[in-house]
Structures are given as C-alpha cells and as structure tokens.
Write a structure and sequence with these properties.
The complex is a heterodimer of chains A (552) and B (311). The longest helix of chain A is centred in the N-terminal third of the chain and has 24 residues, at 2-25. Chain A is built from 16 helices and 19 strands. The radius of gyration of chain A is 27 Å and the shape is globular. Chain A is an alpha+beta fold and 552 residues long. Helix content of chain B is 74%, strand content 0%. Chain B has 14 helices and no strands. Chain B has helices at residues 2-16, 22-25, 35-44, 51-64, 79-114, 119-132, 136-150, 169-206, 209-216, 221-246, 253-258, 264-273, 277-305, 307-310. Classes of the chains: A alpha+beta (552), B mainly alpha (311). Chains A and B meet through helix 1, helix 6, strand 8, helix 7 and helix 13 of A and helix 2, helix 3, helix 5, helix 7 and helix 8 of B.
Chain lengths: 552, 311
Amino acid sequence: MNTYISSRRVVMKAMLAMSAAPWMLSTKVFASSSCDDHVVRFGGILSPDTMNPFASWASWQPLVCTYDFLVCVDAQRHPDRRGFAKEWSVADDNLTWTFKIWPGMKWSDGQPATARDAAFTYNYLLGSIGKPDELNVGENSTADMQKVESITAIDDETLRIVTKTPTRWPIDNFTMIVPQHIWKDVSYADARSTFRNDPPLVGTGPLIVQEFQQGQFVRFTPNPHFRSGRPSTAGMIMSFFNTADPIAQGLKSGSLDFGISLTAAQSADLSKNPAIKVVETRCEQVNYLAFNTASGKGAGSSKALQDPAFRDAIGYAIDQKAIVDRAFRGLAEPGVGLVPPSAADYYSDLNDVRRHFDLAEAGRRLDDAGYLDSNGDGIREDKDGKRFQLELITGTVSGKLEIPMAAVQLIAGWLGQIGIPVSVTQLEAGALSARTETSADSGGWDLLVAAAWPSPTPDDLLRGFSSGAHANRAFWSNEKFDAILSEVEVTLDLKKGQELVDQAARLVYTEAPYITLCYPFLLEAYRKDCFEGWGEDISLWSYYPFDRLRSA
Amino acid sequence: MTLLMVAILNFILFRVIPGDPSSLLLGGARISVTPEQIEAQRQSWGLDRPMFPDQVVDYLSATMQGDLGYSFKFRGRRVADLILERLPATVALVGLAQVIAILCGVMLGLYAGWRRGGAIDHITTGTSLALYSTPAFWLGMLLVVIFSTALGWLPGYGAHSPGAVSGSLDWLLDYLRHLALPVAAVALGLIGQYVVVARAAMSDVVTEDYMVTARAKGLTNGQMLMRHAFRNAMLPVVTLIALNLGYVVAGAITVEAVFAWPGIGGLTVEALNARDYPVLQGIFLLLGASIVVANLVADLAYGLLDPRVRQ
C-alpha cells in the first residue's frame, strides 16, 4: 500500500512539474520576436555556403552587408550609395581611373580602411591568375581581370586602376573589398577552398556578420565605424528557409520583420494584413522562351528552329500580357527585350519593332516562311516535309520553380493553335542544366522556358547571349551581336553604351533566338510595427535599406 | 559486405542523375564562366577522370579509411563534419518523435486491439488512420498556422533563437520550444502508424487458441494481457520500431523543410540541389549503416521476445 501511495505521489509531482512546463516555455524571455530588442529579422530561401568571399557563390546576401564594393552598383542612381570609394574619375585616355577612398574610414575592428586594402584585394586576385589555385570560383573572382593593367594605392586615400583597354570594369565590378590585415597570410589554395573566414568578420559595411550557423541563420551586429554612422538598429538576423511557407507564417506571427522569395498567393494573402506591407520590387530576372538554334550535335528536332523567320512568327503567338495576368497574377511586367526594366539605364520598350499577339498573323507568317499544313490535318510541316512535334523543356533552379507551369501550358496551347504541337517536359534543376548547358553532351531539345539574371551593367546584360557563352542556352551565334558586345566592353560613355545595348537588344528581338516572356517582380514583405525607413527600392544588390532602418 | 554494396550503389546512383557539379563549383550559373574554366575545375576535383575504376576506387579506399572527403558546395568543410554538425538536430527531432510515438502509439494500439469494437477502439483507429494518411509536412504547416501564427505559443521555425548561449538552461528551454512543433508533426504521423500495426497484431493474438486456454485456466484479464497477449503482439511492432529507428538519422526531409530545422533532411535537400556528391554519399552511407544496425537490433530483439527464434 505504501508503495502504491508513494508512486501515486511521484505521478502527481510529475504532473505538476509538467503543467508548469508550458508556462516556462512560453515566457517572454524565450520569445523569438520582439520589437524591444531592435533587431531586424529577415527570412529568405537562402543557403549560404561559406563566409569566404573568394570561395563562396551562395552567400551574397550576408556578405554584401559586411563587405563593400569599390563602387556600389546603385552609386550612379543614388548619390548616397557610394561603396568603399567616395568618388572617382577617369583620365582622358579612358584607361586610368582614380578613386578617392573615404577619409578616415575604419574597418569594423577599428583598423584604418584605406586604398591599400582595396589595392591588396584586387592584387590578391590578379596575383592568382594562371596559378593552379587561381581565385576564380567565388564571388570575388578573377573573371574579367584580364582587362586590368595595374592597381596601385597612391596613398591611403587614393587608388589608381589602369586598364589595358577602355572598360567600365573599375566601377562595375562586384569584388568585395577585404581587409589586408586579415587576408594577407591566407594562401591562394586556402582562399579558394578551406579558409572559412569564420565570424566575426571584419568589414566596412553597415552590418557585420557575428555568427553563422550553417543551414540556420546569420546574425549581424551594427558596424560601429560605418562611414555614415553606426546603423540605429541593434543588428539583424537573417534566417534561411527551404520553402516560402514558413517565411509567410513568420511575417504573420511577427517572428520575421522582412521576408523575400514569397509566392504570388502568399503575397496576396499577406497584403490583407494591415501590419504588413507587401512590396513588388523589380529585379534582374528575365523569363524567356529560347529556341534551340544549334545546327550540329545537340540540334533540335527541326531545322526550322534555326530559321529567324520561323522564330519571329512564333513571337506573334506569344501573349506576354496574358502570361503576366494569368500565370503571374499580375505580379510581373510583360516581356519585351533582353534588358529588364530594372536596368533602367539600358532598358528600351522597342516600341517601333514590337510584335503584337495575333495568332492569325503568326499563321500567315509561318505560311509565308514555308511552314505549311499541306495535308490539312491541323499540323504544319517543316521544309523537310516533317510534321512538327516540338519538345518544350522547363524546370526548377535550386529547388525553386522560376516560371509557373501555367505560363508554359499557355505557350504550348498557343503554339498548338497555330499548328505546331508542343509536348512539355518539366525537369529537375540538374537534369535541366545537363540538357541546356553549352557542352558536347547537351541539347536535343526544341524549346526552353527558363530565366536569366544578368547584372545591370551593359556588358553583363549582353554577354549571356554571345557566341559560346555558358549562359547562352539557345546556342545562338551572331557575329554582329558579338561585335556590338566587344564595342560595349570598351565603351565608357553612358549614352554610347545605351545606344549599343539598344542595337544589341533589337538584334536579339528581330532574330528571336529568345522571346522574352516577362520580368517577374521580386515579392517581398515587411512588417510596419517594429521598424520604419524601408523605402520603396529595396535593393537586391546591396544592403539597402538595412543600413538606414530605425525603430518605429 | 552490405555496407560495401551500399557505398558502391551510392557512388553510382548520384552520378547517373543528370547534371554536372562542375558549373556549380564555378559559382552556379555565372554568366562569365568559360568552358576552359569548367574543365579546369573538373580536373581539380578529379571529375575528369574515368568513373571506373579511378573515381570509384579512390572513393572506396578513402571511405574505408573514414575519409568522406570535402563538400562541393560548403567549401572547406569536410563531409563528416557537416553530417556530424547536423546529426544531433535530426536525432533530437526524429528520435524524440519516435519515442513519443512508440509509447503512445503502441499502448493505444494494443489497448484498441484488446478492446476491439469498443468506443476507444473506434476513436483510436479512426484518428490513427487519418493521422497515418496525412502527409507530415501538411500536418506541420497546420501546426505552425495554429500554434505559431494564430496563438503565438511556439516558434514556427529554426532550432533556437540566434545569439542564445549554447549549453545554458535558457538555451535548452529555447531549443525545446523550437523542437515542440516539428516533433509533434513527425510523432503524430508515427503514432497513427504504430496504432494501426499494434492494433492489428493484438487483434490477431486475442483470437488465438492459447488465449482461450488461458482464460479457461482462470487467468485475469491483466494476467492474460501481460503474460500472453502483449509479448506475442509485440513481434510485428518490434520489427516496425527497429526499421523506423533505422531512419532516425535520415531525418524527416519535408518536416525539416517546413520548420527550417537544421538537420540531415535539410542538408540532403541542399546537397541534392547543389549536386554535392560527397555530402550525398556520406548521408546515404550513414543511412545504409543505420538500417543495417536497425535490422540487427530487430533480429536480436526477436530472439529475446520469441524463444523459438533463439532455438
């Protein structure tokens, strides 16, 4: 009996203890979100790999908060967005650039940040060129540095870059400037592989990475030595997710202040919440329909794909507005040319050469080009007399679908209506890249719906469409286009650059190896209760507006 | 021998998937990558060498020495370190969910089987079938919407609040708060599974002749249950438990994705997206080994439960 009573008491005690557990666990001490700590909470579908900018290719977002570019990508449009250099000029020879570094600037550890650090960073990269451990694998890469003759620190505040040919590279490169005193003893072999650059990092950006938990989050603290003053928030926590659902739920519950990578449905749902502001931001994504123009190995099922007249006719059967309205719920802009509107300096609406959606016109043009339905069965034949049956491939990138399948189905439907049946194959990222990369084993497809992410610099906007380029999924080759690109690469004048980019865009539009479908918005949302100062132009390319947020 | 076969299969499986990690090694789909740079990258990682025998022999000999190599994606990180870093979170999530599911599911299932046709049997069986057939990720999303978004009781993602000092009591409680919803999502599905199996086993046992004999001998319900029914009904349940325990290290991929739980499941997704062969091989080798061990445990447990097996 005693044993029974004793065990009953134990059970009662255990139950009492357990009843206290929910209270203990739900105390505010452990609350994951609160405006009181002034820490910005950011969520996105991200998977940062390493904090080493010479080895990383997936840590852009955290690294750009900590390290500056020499010239920020937004500097030309926003005078308060400069980067490591305060001002710059180019000599009359168009080869010699002089950069003035912010006077008295310091690294986050209090050490002086000077032109010597910038020179070190660039020369560190330059010195690796041609070596077995060339630094060509990360965000900080030797790509395009063959244009550079020399980079010298004249004094603490003056950096001189001399290029071999005129180029905008000195102000358009995305090299993150790293501190010499941290990196000077890191070998090339380590820098491109095993050196992890463990936090706390040392940078000149507004938010410094203090903690990196792989697969979980990056925690930032404000840089006390930031050139325009210490940011007023207490830092930022950037959480990583594999899907957007927890991001949307986090915004609703208040455990996140800012979320990216949202879907159209989540965006519509969140916009009903008065505490949340949904932002549709233009980004660099260009969704396109590509034709396999290869003529040799890897060619498509019909030679018609190599015929500009055929591709042009197909262009009349694509209704970009319907794609935006029906597949993107209006959260995109109808596609025109290869330059996205976010690259405002180079965008053109190509009004004078634009095609309009007209299936009858598409049919007429196909007839004129010799692609007839000779036996009246509703399916056209190519010039070899072969009935069309095109394969359209599309798929995911890094686990995400860049283009809704509804858009792909619309395209297949329109082409079917003009007598060109299309079968759709949806592939996983690896399988998709295996079939579309520029290599001997790729190809065999006819149509591809995919996306490009060019940076808003003139040569990068065009390079992906040049002959033999890795990103040139259509395998398109055009000497005139390549010549324009070569000229763009040595053009510094903005107006002339715009004219050249416009010429190239028109060429691609009329030759139609790619038909631009739309420019999707980046769907972001922020909560209004903890912070203000979000602005309307949250930049994917840098840390804005996280340097200027303040508690609400 | 089994593990050797697993290792070889791992090597082959991930290489027959279409896709080449070499462009990833040069920064994903960077526009400026040239074919020459890709080839140089393939050479430096040994991807240009013949898959058989060069790559496979190198892989097997290194694996036998415990060297799983370096990750393609997470530069500078050893595969073994990456796996060991993520393993505790997965073991905590799936392990705890298994323990809860075994305790609740087996007890409920056995009781429902013992009291066939009763109200508890109907309720338990119906609920269990519903839980068993519900995808864990959907259940997880439902839990997040209710307990995190609507009620705000528990965090809906992550393993702990950033900045928490590891090892402190606060950290532990914070960890448990984060663990609660994902464990519930995994455990609820498993409970359904255990209830269904345990109930079926007990239902079979109670109709056996030896149970009639036991009742004729004058044994009480409790004596019949504990001495005869329970032990016999546990045989299929033990098999299920052992097999499920083998999957503890595999993680719960979809649930980990819903809750952004930093376990092996999440690492698997990241590695798959990145064609990170060494990490995938390491994870699947670990999974293969755990299944082998789980089967061994099941065989040994059979011997303990059923004397006929020992003979």
